[in-house]
């Protein structure tokens, strides 16, 4: 690994579901996150984005199994670490902002207490020190009257406030890597912009590396400098954000971007068909049935990944 590399996935594979017929949710995913970099992962629902994030932290649901590959964090393969070491690493060095903040918070305890517990678990200190740190984090997240709001329960928070509390919890131990899984889901546009600004401000201030997961290219373009495009559990295109937006090559990437650039006077574009159910891995390209440029070889032969420009990689036979 390069000294500039903080996280590197190599051919990561994971399945989820019943043993007799599991879904191949993550299929040979590879990408690199540099120190201090902001990388976005984009794709439709069901493309494997969230399962990739959960696999990195070994937080798959009970029916999930990692079938192969490596997750190299600062040179260590996280898939080989004993669980006690992983528990020390989660929340301290690598933090995750879950997709549904309201569901991720425990309804039985005050929000400030939950944030303080994370700090005490990893950093130690007295309950008072942890509480003061939690209140300070809520204040830094722009929550008004933080000492009082810290004593409130999750159901007393709005969606935007709950998301800010989750960001406070994720950042309280100053992690080196932050994974944000659809952090603006369910929020109105004004609150979305505030949450994104908050994440950018915090990661830039601390030098934290960021992996931002979204189905919205506008969100990725606002925050990130590199992008990974996923489809059916695979990476189909990746590279510098500006390069991929300027010169998208994979037909899926082009179709995805077209959906966000409707032309006046024309019907809203969409991608016909659906993401395949991955009970069996496709022999060839998973986008074959939806691709306007598909050839017969696409049905039978899995596309290789080629570098078309510095750092710009594409998996497609049509390149």
Describe the protein's architecture and organization.
There is one protein chain. With 319 residues, the protein is of the alpha/beta class. The protein folds into two domains: 5-105 and 176-315, Rossmann fold, CATH 3.40.50.300; 106-156. Helix content is 34%, strand content 24%. The protein contains twelve helices and twelve strands. It has an eight-stranded mixed beta sheet with strand order 6-7-8-3-9-10-12-11, with helices on both faces. A four-stranded antiparallel beta sheet has the order 2-1-4-5, covered by helices on one side. Helix 4 (111-123) crosses helix 5, helix 4 (111-123) packs parallel to helix 7 (159-171) and helix 5 (127-140) packs across helix 7 (159-171). It is globular and about 65 Å long. The model has no long low-confidence stretch (mean pLDDT 92).
SSE topology:
Elements: E1 5-16, E2 23-34, E3 38-42, H1 49-56, E4 64-73, E5 76-77, H2 83-89, E6 94-97, H3 101-104, H4 111-123, H5 127-140, H6 146-149, H7 159-171, E7 177-181, H8 189-206, E8 209-214, H9 217-223, E9 226-231, E10 234-240, H10 241-246, H11 251-258, H12 296-300, E11 305-309, E12 312-315
Parallel strand pairs: 3-8, 3-9, 6-7, 7-8
Antiparallel strand pairs: 1-2, 1-4, 4-5, 9-10, 10-12, 11-12
Helix pairs in contact: 4-5, 4-7, 5-7, 7-8
């Amino acid at each position: 690994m390069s000294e500039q590399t903080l996280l590197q996935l190599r051919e990561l594979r994971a399945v989820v579901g019943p043993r007799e017929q599991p879904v191949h949710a993550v299929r040979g995913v590879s990408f690199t996150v540099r120190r201090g970099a902001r990388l976005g992962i984009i794709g439709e629902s069901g493309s494997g984005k969230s399962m990739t994030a959960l696999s990195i932290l070994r937080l798959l649901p009970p029916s999930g199994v990692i079938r192969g590959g490596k997750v190299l964090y600062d040179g260590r393969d996280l898939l080989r670490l004993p669980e006690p070491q992983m528990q020390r690493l989660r929340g301290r060095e690598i933090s995750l902002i879950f997709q549904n903040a309201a569901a991720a918070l425990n309804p039985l305890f005050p929000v400030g207490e939950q944030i303080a517990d994370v700090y005490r678990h990893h950093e130690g200190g007295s309950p008072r020190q942890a509480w003061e740190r939690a209140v300070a984090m809520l204040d830094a997240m722009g929550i008004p009257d933080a000492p009082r709001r810290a004593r409130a329960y999750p159901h007393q928070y709005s969606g935007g406030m709950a998301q800010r509390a989750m960001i406070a919890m994720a950042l309280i131990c100053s992690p080196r890597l932050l994974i944000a899984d659809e952090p603006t889901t369910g929020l109105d546009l004004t609150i979305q912009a505030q949450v994104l600004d908050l994440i950018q401000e915090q990661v830039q201030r601390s030098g934290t590396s960021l992996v931002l997961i979204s189905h919205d290219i506008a969100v990725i373009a606002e925050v990130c400098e590199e992008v990974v495009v996923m489809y059916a559990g695979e990476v189909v295109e990746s590279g510098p954000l500006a390069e991929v937006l300027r010169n998208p090559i994979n037909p899926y990437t082009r179709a995805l971007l077209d959906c966000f650039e409707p032309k006046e006077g024309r019907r809203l574009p969409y991608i016909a068909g659906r993401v395949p159910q991955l009970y069996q891995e496709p022999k060839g390209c998973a986008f074959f049935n939806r691709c306007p440029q598909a050839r017969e070889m696409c049905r039978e032969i899995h596309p290789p990944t080629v570098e078309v420009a510095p750092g710009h990689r594409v998996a497609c036979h049509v390149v």
